[in-house]
């Protein structure tokens, strides 16, 4: 994050002289400057939570495999968007413990967590190898949405990576099938339902439908910082592809602010904003 913060700071002078500094946009820039200064404090708070969990793990009963699994899962969740290699480490521990328990549900859950870490690192082959043997029917109901969403994202990301007329349409089609499965198990009108419905619309050229879904989520109260970051970043991509940079920048600022507040690192929004403003 330090590199990107430096990029932001060096780009602010150009940014503030190139766009109108009135209304909500000006306030967003002011808030981003304020939040950038708070990065160390947010990170200390996040790291304190990690340290507490590690202490709990060190004092845990090694015979209580189910308890160890949950502590490692909590550590994975703490590292999930903070440090991918550490997240992968704790997901691997989850898989080892699940194997000792001989619990298929927990084994599949740990594989989903491992898959997220691999995909977030751009390791497509490794992600496919890990998830290829999984069957959605074997995944517990409580984790089906997470599994289907991960598979859908895998195919969408692979399509973006290939970015050609030969392979991308197939990958998008496969991603759409998994998104249909996500929507079938999520509560209608929930934040996740609206997001994945909007994401599918975005990937199938129904931009206005996607935009309406994302704006509906952002208008709601009680969103987590991570929800704000993901939705705002995805909506900004819609505007960028249309060449609507003035509309995209406030959304990117909103996304980066939310990422800072949740100590999320290595974000697409941060990279995109830095690229635009410099």
Please explain how this structure is put together.
The chain is mainly alpha-helical. The chain has a domain at 44-134. It has helices at residues 2-18, 23-37, 39-58, 65-79, 84-101, 104-120, 124-131, 141-162, 168-185, 191-203, 207-218, 225-241, 245-261, 268-277. Helix 3 packs antiparallel against helix 4 (65-79), helix 6 runs antiparallel to helix 7 (124-131) and helix 10 (191-203) runs parallel beside helix 12.
Q: What is the strand content?
A: under 5%
Q: Which term fits the overall shape?
A: globular
- Major beta sheet summary: none
Assembly level = single chain
Cα separation of the termini:
16 Å
Structural class: mainly alpha
Low-pLDDT windows of residues: 1-7
What is the residue-averaged pLDDT? Answer: 88
Q: Give the beta-strand count.
A: 0
Topology pattern, helix = H, strand = E: HHHHHHHHHHHHHH
Key attributes of the depicted protein:
278 residues, mainly alpha, disordered N terminus
Put the structure in a nutshell.
It is built from 14 helices and no strands.
Strand and helix layout:
Elements: H1 2-18, H2 23-37, H3 39-58, H4 65-79, H5 84-101, H6 104-120, H7 124-131, H8 141-162, H9 168-185, H10 191-203, H11 207-218, H12 225-241, H13 245-261, H14 268-277
Helix pairs in contact: 1-14, 2-13, 3-4, 4-5, 5-6, 6-7, 6-8, 8-9, 9-10, 10-11, 10-12, 11-12, 12-13, 13-14
């Amino acid at each position: 994050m330090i590199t990107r913060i430096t990029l932001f700071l060096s780009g602010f002078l150009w940014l503030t002289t190139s766009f109108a500094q009135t209304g909500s946009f000006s306030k967003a820039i002011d808030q981003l400057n304020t939040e950038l200064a708070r990065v160390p404090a947010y990170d200390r708070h996040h790291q304190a939570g990690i340290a507490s969990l590690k202490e709990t793990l060190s004092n845990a009963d090694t015979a209580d495999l189910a308890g160890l699994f949950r502590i490692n899962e909590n550590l994975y969740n703490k590292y999930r968007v903070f440090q991918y290699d550490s997240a992968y480490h704790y997901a691997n521990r989850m898989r080892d413990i699940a194997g000792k328990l001989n619990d298929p549900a927990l084994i599949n859950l740990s594989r989903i967590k491992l898959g997220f870490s691999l995909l977030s690192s751009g390791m497509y082959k490794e992600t496919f190898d890990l998830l290829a043997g999984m069957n959605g029917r074997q995944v517990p109901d409580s984790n089906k949405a997470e599994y289907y969403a991960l598979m859908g994202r895998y195919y969408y990301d692979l399509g973006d990576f290939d970015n050609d007329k030969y392979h991308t349409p197939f990958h998008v089609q496969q991603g759409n099938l998994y998104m249909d499965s996500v929507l079938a198990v999520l509560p209608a009108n929930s934040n996740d339902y609206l997001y994945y419905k909007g994401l599918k619309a975005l990937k199938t050229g129904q931009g206005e439908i996607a935009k309406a879904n994302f704006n509906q989520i952002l208008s709601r109260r009680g969103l987590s910082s991570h929800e704000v970051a993901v939705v705002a970043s995805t909506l900004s991509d819609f505007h960028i592809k249309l060449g609507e940079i003035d509309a995209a920048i406030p959304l990117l600022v909103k996304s980066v602010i939310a990422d800072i507040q949740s100590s999320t690192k290595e974000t697409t929004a941060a990279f995109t904003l830095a690229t635009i403003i410099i």
